[in-house]
Amino acid sequence: RLPSLRPSMAQKEETAEAAAPTSQDGEDLENPGDPKNLKELVELPPFEIVTGERLPANFFKFQFRNVEYSSGRNKTFLCYVVEAQSKGGQVQASRGYLEDEHAAAHAEEAFFNTIMPAFDPALCYLVTWYVSSSPCAACADRIVRTLNKTKNLRLLLLAGRLFMWEEPEIQAALRKLKEAGCKLRIMKPQDFEYVWQNFVEQEEGESKAFEPWEDIQENFLYYDEKLADILK
C-alpha cells in the first residue's frame, strides 16, 4: 500500500477565506449541497500508481525545465492526478505519467485513449495535469471536444512552458481551452517541486530534495505574463 501523497500546490493554494464552501480550484460553489460538486480536499487519500513507473530524474530535469527556448525538447511529458468522487462523497485517487515516445499519439491524446476509458460515468472527476509544455493546437482541440461532451469531468492544466505561444493558431487554441472550462496555469516553482517529489524516481544515495534551477522563478513569471496576455 502506497503512502498518502501530500496535496499539490495547485490543489492547496486556493484556500477559503470565509466559511463558504469552495471547489478544489477555489471557485465558490453555487450549490454546495449538490453531490456533483467536488468539494475542496484538505487531505488526499492514498494513491495507486497507474503506470507503475516514475519519471527518470534526468528526464524531469531536462524536459520540465521552464526555459524560454526549448531546444531539443520535442516531446511532452504529462503527469496526472485523477480524483473521482461518488455521490456519497467518497473519493478515489490515482496518478501516473505519460510521454509521447511511449504512445502512438501525443501525451494528451494518450491520456484520453488509455486512462479515461476506465472512468465511471456515475462519478465526478477532477483531473490535474502537469505537462512539460502546453498542448499543440490539435491536442487543445481534442481537450475542448472532450470537455464539452463529458460533463462529469473538470480539468486543471499546469504547463511548465508555453508551446509556440507566438503563433496565432496556438493562442486561439489556448483561449478555446479556457472557454471550454479548462483551468490553465503556468507551473510555479512549488509545482515543479511537487512533481519532483511525487512523479520522479528517487535514486538510492541521491538527495531527494528538489533543487530549483537558477532561473526557475524568472521563467515562471515570463510565461505567466505571456499566458495572461493570451487569455485576456
Automatic annotation (TrEMBL):
The keyword Oxidoreductase is assigned to this record: no
Keywords recorded for this protein, A-Z: Hydrolase, Metal-binding, mRNA processing, Zinc
Top-level EC class: hydrolase
Cofactor(s) listed: Zn(2+)
Gene Ontology cellular component terms for the protein in this record: cytoplasm; nucleus
GO terms of biological process kind: cytidine to uridine editing; mRNA processing
InterPro entries reported in the protein's UniProt record: APOBEC_Cyt_Deaminase, CMP_dCMP_dom, Cytidine_deaminase-like
Catalytic activity: cytidine(6666) in apoB mRNA + H2O + H(+) = uridine(6666) in apoB mRNA + NH4(+)
Enzyme Commission number, as recorded: 3.5.4.36
GO molecular function: cytidine deaminase activity; metal ion binding; RNA binding
CMP/dCMP-type deaminase domain ranges (all copies): 72-177
Region of interest (Disordered), residue spans: 1-37
Gene3D superfamilies recorded: Cytidine Deaminase, domain 2
Metal-binding among keywords: yes
Record family assignment: Belongs to the cytidine and deoxycytidylate deaminase family.
Role this protein plays: Probable C to U editing enzyme whose physiological substrate is not yet known. Does not display detectable apoB mRNA editing. Has a low intrinsic cytidine deaminase activity. May play a role in the epigenetic regulation of gene expression through the process of active DNA demethylation.
Assembly behavior: Homotetramer.
Protein name, UniProt field: mRNA(cytosine(6666)) deaminase
